[in-house]
UniProtKB/TrEMBL annotation:
One of its GO terms (molecular function) is catalytic activity, acting on RNA. SUPFAM superfamilies: Pseudouridine synthase. The keyword Isomerase applies. It comes from Hymenobacter perfusus. Coiled coil: none annotated. Belongs to the pseudouridine synthase RluA family. This is RluA family pseudouridine synthase.
Length: 235
């Protein structure tokens, strides 16, 4: 059995114990399989675990949350069904504190605040629309944001989503602040990035370990890509 290409040098693995596998996901990689048939992060994780522990059959990999394909950053995977069940509860009960970094083209006013919208997803177009008032079957979405400063010719904003809705940060920054994320042409940015990613990075996850109950905090380094270089000053 050959070692998988991904994680061959363990750069993407932020943490591993008997229950959790914490990964710094590269942009462009699905977290879980979809209709495209492309190999997702979950399958790569299973391959890694089978190799490491010399498992003759399948290894258990549970997905408790997802990042959009063009988004990079920290993803928590479960290695046991018990850990997955408890992780699902933590995410469902909003007991996971999530921090994202995003690059935007202009400084919003005000430079920090709270956004509330009701989001309606269009599954055909795979887009989400934000409304400032309660709307039909729309799901309430809340986030806090704070501009950290200028990063080259962009602005770096820290976002703490309180809820976890599809495309939430992307549509709320675009609709609520008029500041689409760099490269996110789906939500109003004028041009894509060369690697077709968007400048949104899941920087940190904080939660109580689902089994040991220890307080855990995982930080994912920024991708080594030109558009993120100026933001590294904010580490």
């Amino acid at each position: 059995m050959n070692r998988p290409n991904l994680w061959s040098e363990r750069k993407e693995i932020l943490f591993e114990d008997n229950h959790l596998l914490i990964i710094n996901k590269p942009a462009g990689l699905l977290v879980q399989g979809d209709a495209t048939g492309d190999e997702p992060l979950s399958a790569k994780a299973e391959e890694y675990l089978r190799f490491k522990y010399k498992k003759p059959g399948a290894a258990f990999v549970g997905v408790a949350h997802r990042l959009d394909r063009p988004v990079s950053g920290v993803v928590a995977l479960a290695k046991t069904s018990k850990a997955l069940s408890r992780l699902n509860e933590l995410f469902r009960d909003n007991k996971v504190h999530k921090t994202y970094w995003a690059l935007i083209g202009k400084c919003p006013a005000p430079t920090q605040g709270h956004l509330t919208h009701w989001l309606v997803k269009d599954p055909i177009r795979n887009t989400t629309k934000a409304y400032t008032e309660r709307h039909g079957q729309g799901l309430k979405a809340d986030l806090d944001y704070q501009v950290l400063g200028q990063a080259g010719n962009r602005w770096l904003v820290q976002v703490n989503p309180i809820t976890g809705r599809p495309h939430q940060i992307r549509v709320q920054l675009s609709s609520g602040l008029g500041t689409p994320i760099v490269g996110d042409v789906k939500y109003g940015f004028l041009a894509p990035l060369p690697d077709v990613s968007i400048a949104l990075h899941a920087r940190q996850l904080e939660f109580q370990h689902p089994v040991t109950k220890e307080a855990m905090c995982f930080k994912a380094p920024l991708p080594h890509i030109a558009h993120w270089e100026a933001a590294e000053a904010y580490y």
